[in-house]
Design goal:
The chain is an all-alpha fold. It is 78% helix and 0% strand. The chain starts with 36 loop residues before the first helix and ends in a 27-residue tail after the last helix.
Length: 393
């Protein structure tokens, strides 16, 4: 079962005591703001003044004396005595209440001081723990930064080596490009010569074609002459027949006709042979010219392809060299960043160690000089504003 809560210490108040304050200590009054030590003391004084007997009054249970027997002097003396006793009681009660209030206030202040001290010690321990964690993080960061710096240096060395290799390859590619350009120039010269040869071949072909056309025309003329000879032979045959019919002079006409026929046939064969030979020579010259032109074109295209390939390889080598230089630059930037991170980590670790030394030096600075180190005597509580007052019990 839950114990019943205490009632408020204010006279006549039956409300429960308010919860303890966050700073620690105990509370003797309820949550009303007008119920505190000062108002309770004033209320108790007012109640004590109300409960005290009136001056010159008769105590309860005492039979009244005859007023006629009391003189004015005796009444005045009793009144002065009563007032003096009341003043002494009031002074005594005031001193007791003051001492009680001072004792309660001092106890509350001591409890608050002890609570603050415990809280500061806990916060100092938390800060020390956080400083240890931060120092561990800083050490780990420093190690990682050193490892990153080492990796960056290795990467920079590899990048420099790759850049050197790339530069060598670029120089080789440049030389190959120059050689390819020279070959391309020679190919262009060969192409010019081939063009000239092709032009000459074209001229020869045109000449052969002209000769072929002339031969064809000659063959046509020969065919016309053959036709005419055939006609003459026919006429000669007719004349021979007529001569044979006439029988006197047929032999002479026949011999002439046969001679003319043989001459015409021989001339026709010669014209055909010359025409065929001229056509064959023209065709051979045209074929040779075409082959030479095709070979020259192939050499020119091959030279251009080689030049383009060499130029492409040179450009690729230049791109690789540029990429290697970029990687080297990035490695240098990474190394600088790693060095900056390492410097920041070292500075942060130094600051943390200095803060930790200062935090550890604070309890040693607050320890009394006469307390021997290593003893189990607890350190005294820090003096508060009311710990050395004149009313300390």
């Amino acid at each position: 079962m839950t114990a019943p809560s205490a009632a408020c210490a204010f006279p006549g108040c039956e409300l429960p005591v308010a919860p303890p304050p966050p700073t620690g200590g105990r509370s003797a009054y309820c949550a009303r703001p007008d119920h505190n030590r000062t108002t309770a003391f004033a209320a108790r004084r007012a109640r004590a003044a109300e409960d005290s007997p009136a001056p010159g009054g008769t105590p309860a249970g005492t039979p009244p004396a005859p007023r006629a027997a009391d003189t004015l002097t005796r009444v005045a003396d009793r009144l002065r005595q009563t007032l003096a006793a009341i003043e002494e009681q009031v002074h005594s009660a005031t001193d007791a209440l003051t001492r009680a209030a001072d004792a309660e206030l001092l106890e509350a202040e001591r409890a608050a001081i002890r609570t603050d001290a415990r809280r500061e010690v806990a916060e100092a321990e938390q800060r020390a723990s956080a400083a240890d964690r931060l120092r561990a993080v800083a050490e780990r960061t420093t190690r990682e930064a050193l490892e990153a710096a080492a990796r960056a240096e290795d990467g920079a060395a590899r990048a420099r080596e790759e850049a050197a290799v790339a530069r060598d390859e670029a120089a080789t590619a440049q030389a190959a490009t120059e050689v390819a350009h020279a070959e391309a120039d020679r190919a262009r010269l060969d192409l010019g010569a081939a063009e000239a040869a092709r032009a000459e071949a074209d001229a020869g072909r045109r000449d052969a074609e002209r000769r072929r056309d002339a031969a064809v025309r000659d063959a046509e003329s020969a065919r016309g002459e053959q036709a005419r000879a055939q006609q003459g032979w026919d006429r000669a045959v007719a004349d021979a027949a007529a001569a044979r019919e006439r029988a006197a002079h047929a032999d002479a006409a026949r011999d002439e006709a046969l001679a003319a026929e043989r001459a015409a046939r021989e001339q026709l064969e010669r014209v055909r042979a010359e025409t065929a030979e001229a056509v064959h020579r023209a065709e051979q010259a045209a074929a040779a010219a075409r082959l030479e032109a095709a070979a020259a074109d192939g050499r020119a295209r091959a030279a251009d392809a080689r030049a383009e390939a060499e130029a492409g390889r040179a450009e690729a080598q230049a791109v690789r060299a540029e990429r290697a230089e970029r990687r080297a630059e990035e490695s240098r930037r990474d190394r600088l960043t790693a060095e900056e991170a390492r410097d920041r980590a070292v500075a942060a670790q130094a600051r943390l160690e200095e803060a930790l030394r200062a935090r550890r030096a604070e309890p040693a600075a607050g320890r009394p000089a006469d307390a021997a180190p290593g003893t189990d005597q607890p350190p005294p509580a820090a003096p508060g504003p009311a710990s050395a007052g004149p009313h300390e019990p």
